[in-house]
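User: Reviewer 2 asked us to show a designed sequence for the structure in our supplementary figure. I'm pasting the structure tokens here. Could you produce the per-position amino acids so we can include them in the response letter?
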């Protein structure tokens, strides 16, 4: 799992320079044709990425002392849409608040009993020349009702986005060097929890979730 974290940190830093480096690798080439070929490849991979995926959702364990290696996982499904969005489906609400402060334990239990939620993520595309499609992610907040202190309340959970966290990303690969086809990774960080629009908790930066799997 260290690989996911390392990639998340390096991916966005590299993508802004990778195209320039590749284009300059051979000054005798027709740069305009290289640019056109690059755009076609991006378009091809965007279209190819659309569809349903299944794999694992990894989250930090509450008992973990090594945040890089000790992760829990459950089966997960998600969908790349044709409108530059991703839907992360049937995500247990309790995973979004695993790193809530101990003082909010009762609220954490109420959220855990709320069931599953869907997370809608908007994308902004970028591309490593001659390598996988990489996406900036802009998750929409999720809202759902909970029974807390014998009353019904509305929970809202927000997430970091790529403007605020360079490690927040999604990636799609048509084929890697092992021959594995149509694989994707999505990484999100829950940020804050609101109860009836009042801020109750902010989560630590290492409370991340990773979806990793293949196209159905």
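Assistant: Here is a per-position design you can include in the supplement:
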């Amino acid at each position: 799992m260290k690989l996911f974290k390392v990639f998340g940190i390096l991916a966005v830093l590299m993508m802004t320079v990778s195209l320039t480096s590749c284009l300059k690798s051979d000054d005798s080439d027709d740069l305009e044709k290289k640019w056109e070929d690059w755009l076609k490849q991006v378009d091809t991979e965007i279209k190819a990425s659309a569809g349903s995926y299944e794999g694992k959702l990894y989250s930090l364990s509450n008992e973990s002392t090594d945040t890089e290696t000790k992760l829990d996982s459950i089966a997960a499904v998600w969908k790349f849409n044709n409108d530059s969005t991703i839907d992360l489906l049937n995500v247990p609400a309790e995973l979004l608040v695993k790193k809530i402060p101990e003082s909010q334990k009762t609220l954490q239990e109420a959220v855990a009993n709320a069931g599953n939620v869907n997370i809608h993520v908007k994308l902004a595309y970028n591309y490593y020349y001659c390598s996988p499609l990489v996406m900036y992610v802009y998750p929409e907040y999720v809202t759902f009702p909970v029974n807390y202190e014998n009353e019904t309340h509305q929970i809202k959970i927000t997430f970091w986005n790529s403007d605020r966290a360079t490690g927040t990303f999604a990636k799609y690969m048509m084929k890697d060097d092992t021959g594995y086809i149509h694989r994707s990774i999505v990484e999100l960080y829950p940020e804050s929890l609101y109860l009836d629009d009042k801020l109750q908790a902010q989560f630590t930066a290492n409370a991340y979730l990773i979806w990793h799997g293949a196209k159905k």
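For the response letter, you might also mention the following. The CA atoms of residues 53 and 208 lie 20 Å apart. Residues 1-24 have pLDDT under 50 and may be disordered.
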